[in-house]
Amino acid sequence: GAALGALLLGIAAGPVRADIDDVAIPVNDKGKTTNLTKEQLVRGKRLFLAACSTCHVGGGTRTNQNVALSLEELSGALPARNTVNGLVDYLNAPTSYDGLKDISEVHPSIKSADLFPKMRSMKQQDLYDISSYILYMNFTIPEKWGGGKQYY
Q1: Burial 101-136, CB ≥16 within 10 A → b, else e
Q2: Per-residue DSSP letters for the chain?
Q3: Helices 124-140, 84-92: inter-axial angle, 10-degree rounding
């Protein structure tokens, strides 16, 4: 009896994982959401790892530890980057956190694809999938995503 109780306690204490399609990803600031398929999530992750993870491993930012890809920090940017559309806009033409300065010469983007070869082949759907992956990670492992070196 005690062994069964300990086994059940161990199972109940494990992490709760949501199914991929249970996670509502915000598309815009008007409340529209989307749900990812496993294929979209895998594609977004693959693109993120290939194009973004050199600087943004685990949602952190190696070049500026003050600004990571956590939902809190994405929400505080101007304009806000806490939706798929907000991140896609940023990946097309990035601006500083306060939105006042064009930073396309130092951050990969469609606008600066001549400087960043990985961006040359990116389509808008690729940016959408990368952005969806970033937000998905925020909703599924918020305590780690954007935490930087302490987790990765």
Answers
A1: eeebeebbbbbbeeebeebeebeeebbbbbbbbbbb
A2: -HHHHHHHHHHHTSPP---GGG-EEE-STTS-EEE--HHHHHHHHHHHHHHTHHHHGGG--TT-TTS-S-HHHHHHSSS---SHHHHHHHHHS-B-TTS-SB-TTTS--STTTTT-GGGTT--HHHHHHHHHHHHHHHHHSTTTTT-GGGT-
A3: 130
From residue 87, give the alpha-carbon distance in Å to each of 27, 78, 109: 10, 11, 11
pTM given for the model: 0.85
One digit per residue, pLDDT tens: the chain, 152 residues?
555 444 444 444 444 456 887 899 999 999 999 999 999 999 999 999 999 999 999 999 988 888 899 999 999 999 999 999 999 999 999 999 999 999 999 999 999 999 999 999 999 999 999 999 999 999 999 989 987 555 55
